[in-house]
Amino acid sequence: MKNIAVVGTGYVGLVTGVCLADLGHHVICIDVDEEKVSHMRKGYSPIYEPQLEGLMKKNIEEGRLTFTTNHAWGIPNMDVIFLAVGTPQQQDGSADLTYVQRAVNDIAQHINRDVIVVNKSTVPVGTNESIQQYFNQHVGELGRVDVVSNPEFLREGSAVYDMFHGDRIIIGAENEGAALLVEELYRRLKLPVVKTDIRSAEMIKYASNAFLATKISFINEISSICEKVGANIEDVAYGMGKDRRIGTQFLQAGIGYGGSCFPKDTNALVQIAGNVEHKFDLLESVIHVNNRQQVLLVKKAKERFGSLHGKRVAMLGLAFKPKTDDIRESASVVVANELIQEGAYVTAYDPIAMPNASKVLNVEFANSTAEALQDADAALIITEWDEFKQLPLSTFSEQMRVPMVFDGRNCYTLEAIQESYLEYHSIGRPVIGEVDLHKFEYTQNYLSEHG
Ligand SMILES: NC(=O)C1=CN([C@@H]2O[C@H](COP(=O)(O)OP(=O)(O)OC[C@H]3O[C@@H](n4cnc5c(N)ncnc54)[C@H](O)[C@@H]3O)[C@@H](O)[C@H]2O)C=CC1
Ligand SMILES: O=C(O)[C@H]1O[C@H](OP(=O)(O)OP(=O)(O)OC[C@H]2O[C@@H](n3ccc(=O)[nH]c3=O)[C@H](O)[C@@H]2O)[C@H](O)[C@@H](O)[C@@H]1O
Question: Which residue's CA is minimally distant from atom 1 of ligand 2?
Answer without folding.
Answer: 261
